[in-house]
Amino acid sequence: MISMKSSLLAWLSIALVHGAVASASDPSTYHLNDRYKIGGEGTWDYIAIDSVARRLYVSHSSQVEVLDADTGRSIGIIADTPGVHGTAIASDLKRGFTSNGGDASVTIFETQHLKTIKKVTVNRPDFILYDPFSKRVFPMSEKATVLDAKTGDSVGKVNLGGKPEAAVSDGRGSVYVNLADKGAVAVIDVQSLTVTKTYPVDRCLSPHSLAIDTSSHRLFVGCLNASLAVLDANSGEVVAHQLACGGVDAGGVDPEKKLVFLSCAEGVVSVIHQLSPDSYELVDTVKTELWARTMAFDSATKKIFLPTADMETVASPDPNQPPMWRVTPGSFRVLVVSP
Q1: How many other C-beta atoms can be found within 10 angstroms of the C-beta atom of residue 323?
Q2: Under 8 Å between Cβ of 258 and 11
Q3: Rounded to the nearest 5 degrees, what angle is found at the Cα of 97, between the Cα atoms of 95 and 103?
Q4: Structural domain of residue 171, as residue ranges?
Q5: What is the CATH number of the domain that holds 155?
Q6: Residue 70 belongs to some domain of the structure
Q7: With CB atoms counted within 10 Å of each terminal CB, which end of the chain scores lower, N or C?
Q8: How far apart (Å, rounded) are the C-alpha atoms in residues 59 and 81?
Q9: DSSP string for 261-323
């Protein structure tokens, strides 16, 4: 992830071809219609939304930018989050949690005034998830330190046996985690903190994004080889594959409209329609902007928010090495894609 995930450049030229595919019989229902300027310098990773409080939490180098989801107005920042990857919000507890890769910590803050409560040392985290069933926080790493969301204390570790990417909760005692290096999805029992099952995902290179529809018990796995794999969450059976954009890093689902979304660094969002729990169709490829690879889906407005920035090349300190990518200062922004 824009640390930058080394695989991004490898697939980009192929992804541009795959991303252009869309169904001519299904006109676009989503479009890019706004940009929230943030500016500053540095890279980013995940974005999260609190649909009730109408706030966006945008990771940005060593801090989290907090924006009004409806206007883009800056509400404040959560500082001292070096190498922050993502934010998990526990609305029921009025708390938030950031995964800080730079100093292997989780920052716990109160959501009303964005004041830090404390920082907790954990194994170096990437994605972070709050599970409302157990009221536990999962800052993901291969051996993840799990926290009690109320106290911030460690309640144990879970050994995933692989490199985790995205994770989702079914709200009934299970958390599902993509294992990018294993081509699989691990199932965690949130009380015992054990991996009870591992679902192999065939024809899926480096599973990255993950979303869940609890009504149909389906997991939606975005794969770096420009495809979506759909799994039965109960059995682990892969029930469908669908062409999608390449270089996916996040996804979402609208159970009401039966739509699945994948956001990709090639500059598109794939919109896939669930015809039935085991049948899917790519209905739209929405143009966004290059590098807009992570997203947050707002269940209230059905909008999609995607952070991105302009990129430029600079000379490598080693004259024998090719130029390096960096974020163009002042260009960081959040795209708003609306139905």
Answers
A1: 10
A2: no
A3: 150
A4: 46-200
A5: 2.130.10.10
A6: yes
A7: C
A8: 9
A9: EEEETTTEEEEEEEEETTEEEEEEEEE--TT----EE-TTT--EEEEE--EEEE--SSTTS--
Assess contact for 230 and 186: CB atoms under 8 A. Answer: no
* SS3 call for 244: coil
Strands (E), 21-104: 31-37, 47-50, 55-60, 63-68, 74-78, 84-90, 95-100
Q: What is the pLDDT of residues 13-31, one digit of tens each?
A: 444 434 444 443 444 489 9
* Mean pLDDT computed over every residue of the chain: 92
Would 306 be classed as within a structural domain?
no
- DSSP codes, 84-111: EEEEEEETTTTEEEEEETTTTEEEEEET
Spatial separation of the C-alpha atoms in residues 34 and 163, rounded to whole Å: 35
pLDDT at residue 74 above 80? yes
Which two three-digit tokens encode residue 228? 């979506």
Phi, psi torsion values for 258, nearest 5 degrees: 60, 45
What's the total number of domains in the chain?
A: 1
pLDDT band for 127, please (50, 70, 90 cuts): very high
Under a CB-based contact definition with an 8 Å cutoff, are residues 245 and 269 in contact?
A: yes
* Length of the chain (residues): 339
In a domain, 329, yes or no: no
Q: Which of 81, 68, 77, 60 is nearest to 36 (CA)?
A: 68
Is there a contact between 332 and 11 (Cβ–Cβ < 8 Å)?
no
What does the block give as tokens for 98? 């950031």
